[in-house]
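Teaching note: in complex prediction, the entire set of molecules is handled at once rather than each chain in isolation. The prompt given to students was simply: 'Predict the structure of this complex.' The entities are:
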Amino acid sequence: MSTAAEASADLRGLALRAREAGRKLAAIPGRVRDAGLEAIARALEAEREAMLEANAADCRDAQELASRGELGLPLVSRLDLSSGKYERAVESVRSVAAMEDPLWRTQGATEVDDGLRLFKVSVPIGVLGVIFESRPDALVQIAALCLKSGNAVLMKGGSEASRSNRALADLIARATAAVEGLPEGWLTLLETREDVRSMLDQDDAIDLIIPRGSNDFVRYIMDNTKIPVTGHSDGVCHVYVDAAADLDKALQVAVDAKVQDVSTCCTAETLLVHAGVAEAFLGTALGRLAEAEVELRGDPRTCRIAGDGRVGEASEEDWSAEYLDYILAVKVVDGLEEAVDHINRYGSAHTDSIVTEDRAAAVRFLQGVDSASVFVNASTRFADGFRFGLGAEVGISTGRLHSRGPVGLEGLTIYKYLMEGEGHTVGYYEGDPPRPYAHRRLEEEWRA
Amino acid sequence: MSTAAEASADLRGLALRAREAGRKLAAIPGRVRDAGLEAIARALEAEREAMLEANAADCRDAQELASRGELGLPLVSRLDLSSGKYERAVESVRSVAAMEDPLWRTQGATEVDDGLRLFKVSVPIGVLGVIFESRPDALVQIAALCLKSGNAVLMKGGSEASRSNRALADLIARATAAVEGLPEGWLTLLETREDVRSMLDQDDAIDLIIPRGSNDFVRYIMDNTKIPVTGHSDGVCHVYVDAAADLDKALQVAVDAKVQDVSTCCTAETLLVHAGVAEAFLGTALGRLAEAEVELRGDPRTCRIAGDGRVGEASEEDWSAEYLDYILAVKVVDGLEEAVDHINRYGSAHTDSIVTEDRAAAVRFLQGVDSASVFVNASTRFADGFRFGLGAEVGISTGRLHSRGPVGLEGLTIYKYLMEGEGHTVGYYEGDPPRPYAHRRLEEEWRA
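The expected output is the structure of the full assembly:
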């Protein structure tokens, strides 16, 4: 067992090696990165048996812990790569390879003056630290996204999946090392919590931490590092049924948002209903939700409409609760502004939806609700990189810098400015006499 | 004098008020924000005398401190708003007003399926904390950029400019309060260092800190807050003269980069010269730089070429020094890769330039140098929001998230996802049987 100081020094070495590797990845052509992805996919196919064996060993241990009640059964099933999950992981690597190269894309070009052109082009962020939950297929997907976007990555998975993760990380490193032009050291698997703690200290060597997992875990990461963190701790999402709602659509959206999958961060946790349609809507909706075995916790007006104690009384805590369960808080509001204020106050800036046929109300909600994803007449459950068409996601951000909402390849890039001149000097423009800059917008793309 | 806890509570109240105001600013039309800017410009014109009087009082105090040697003379001149600087500040407000509205611009649109459209649109970041140096005109420019981009702002200026800042902040608040639709509380002037310390603790209420000023000050801010910081502490910029350089252009660029203004963050601090052209280039260049009164500190090869002790010996510290003075470190390198490695190792990821006629060398430098701005055949001094054509800048970022290089209006925005459907549910697509998403790229702009 190494001391904390040793772990920290080791980790620093790994992070600096990752920086080097990342710089090389950034500058190699997209086809080389894609060749690396294809090499990973092929190696995963060739070594399928060994990978599933390592995974089976993890699963057996987890089963045993679960049988003693020391591990939840959902975790055991997330761990298991058999029955199609392994094949889907291979497929996801190829689908990432098939995506457009996110690097060296021109985001803007300006002719500053004759012969002096400025380009804003996309480049990788650099070195990422990704800490993910117990799904070993997540390791494959994150590695694929990082390689495609030219980022080096330090990864730490759930300890229950340690054999699977080690086998997969080793396979990926070997497969890409064999590809001409790909640097070594772009992917490092961390294996101890001490490594993670050391990683959180390396704010000058790691550019971004992406933690995935439970609220408490993400909160712990956010509270214990100066490195920027992309992710979310809570998902307190709302459906608001407006006075001008089509009540059939409202029912459809509210039920889907709550029960299509109760365990996700974009599941609705609170239903807000305009007073003008509360009787009509809740009359049907409460029954339908109860049929779906959803426990309801209402404000006094909701309880009154429901009658007979069918709806429990919501406490102040319910308005900011992320149940991740068959529970829904319900509140009657007097108008759109009250709904917007409620969401901005109690929500988690993740995803919120209005149901309305009134365009002005829709626009006010879209502009006024201060969340990463704001919907009209659509279930909050759509807030996901795959559903958005981003291809794949590394996570969902409720932060307000760099990336918001589902984060795909584009969220793993930043830009740099490239300027090409012919010996241009500032003195020429800002000397005596000063000469004006032209600043003409160019449609030109930067080409290597 | 309030206690630290009181200051902290007060500051929190101001930050939460700013959040409210920011949410309102985000949703009002661009023409109302522009009307606010015009109101500020007019008030600045109408109250010119009172403003310059407050400024004159600050200048008198500063002069007195300077005469006792307690303040540098450059600071006194930065403080002074007379002789055109006040008028230029008014002009800058109008030029910000004339810029395109940075908000609610569509960055991408996808038809997820029939009747279900997803838009990625630009929105303000939210609440900014800006700490700026002793130029009171900076207050006016920052306020204008924040209002235009819909951000609320807490500001703290240099204490030497306290009267000027108070007068200007008060004028701006009054002028915008009189504009129908503009919220109060979007701009708050902080007056004590205690306030700044309290601000740095409000990581759940303030979204971004932008510190401007000395390296030590910026480093202090970065080290003492969990709020993301946009800015730079160092500017260690390089000019690399390649084997294939046009030596006339090289001389022109190197001299401009060093002496056009020695006090800026994009001033060159180190000159790297390819060994193949070192004799030819340095033969002329060292003389020209010496004529411009630049003290030279060279590596052994440079010293040998210079001969006669004309160039001092550089120490290891010189390679990472930001002189901000008439001093230049000079090193002969054996090739492009050594130059790239040197810059990535000793530089500050700010701005670096290669002089070469060889396209392959230029591309390798542009892709390999890991800095915010990388130039070919152009002086490092071009790294500036105005010269880039961004209109105005709030600062220059050497970070790798959200914004890099000169940060203008666009750097003060983030995006959110807006989705508009017709009652769409995820269960429909991901139920039994699953149905595919369409994910067609749309050219459509989102419209309120």
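Point out the following to students. Chain B has a mean pLDDT of 94. The longest strand of chain B covers residues 413-424.
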